[in-house]
């Protein structure tokens, strides 16, 4: 992705998190490089100006310890971070920190009661939709992960966040989901997962979806154009630079044909239809693992007499590592639109 000249890019790294917040910007937190240097910095990327900026953090006694392999979810003007690992010391975390994008201040959340998850990294987390059974709380779901001492985990926890603890403007509009999805990963014996699991957040029942033609870990995935899109990662034999698409109606993964679009995802000078699947475009393609990613909402200018603002969803990807290099580039995966 082309950046504005003078943009201060984050240093190359893997194991960071990338999160879009209500102000429309995307925030990069933490990560580590192959020398074991761990980061606790925060960078903001403006989707509108295509510019990076490193944030100057407010002084606080609740400093955020550098880490990688943590998870992060957006909650209004705040980002809630759980867990992670310090490659330099080997310390694994199970703490919760909250970053306020307005004050640029970290605060450590004190867990009132309940069972605290074992320290872990490389887990998955998502903000659950509102529920009548938990009307007084926001809920962050944490699943799986691993630690050097305990290996891989298969448990799930819900962090209850009181409504008054953070300002959550906009989250009430999230469409309730029937299922939360977990795809790929690594088993306890080190083999790469070839399945996907669906969790019903109302009944807490799992449904396993066996998939034989796809296996992946250390990848990123997100819902784009009504389909689950996966990019990169490790398949047990090699690092990958491919895009796979899963649609519920097909109940299978399909490898997408990649179209290179220089400049912007809104510049649809080149398109390619993936037979039997969505039309997918990517601005740059490099094999990698341990990259960060999140789905982002792209807002185009108002079109036509209606004055409606066109919104598109894309998968934004940052950095990661390949066999020889730590990366700090930005990639964008979006559904192509045919020209008429």
Task: Summarize the structure in words.
The chain is mainly beta and 340 residues long. The protein folds into 2 domains: 1-175, 6 Propeller (Neuraminidase); 218-340, no CATH class. Helix content is 0%, strand content 43%. It contains no helices and 24 strands. The protein has strands at 17-20, 26-29, 42-46, 51-54, 71-75, 78-85, 92-100, 105-108, 124-128, 137-143, 146-147, 151-152, 156-162, 180-183, 195-199, 206-210, 220-224, 227-234, 239-247, 252-255, 280-282, 292-303, 308-321, 326-335. It has a 4-stranded antiparallel beta sheet, with no helix packed on it. Strands 5-6-7-8 form a 4-stranded antiparallel beta sheet, with no helix packed on it. Strand 6 and strand 7 (92-100) form a beta hairpin. The chain is globular and about 50 Å long.
Q: What global shape is seen? A: globular
By CATH, the superfamily of the largest domain comes out as Kelch-type beta propeller
- Structural class, from secondary structure content? mainly beta
- The count of strands amounts to 24
CATH class of the largest domain equals Mainly Beta
Number of DSSP helical runs: 0
Short characterization:
The chain has 340 residues and is an all-beta fold. The chain has strands at residues 17-20, 26-29, 42-46, 51-54, 71-75, 78-85, 92-100, 105-108, 124-128, 137-143, 146-147, 151-152, 156-162, 180-183, 195-199, 206-210, 220-224, 227-234, 239-247, 252-255, 280-282, 292-303, 308-321, 326-335. The chain starts with 16 loop residues before the first strand and ends in a 5-residue tail after the last strand.
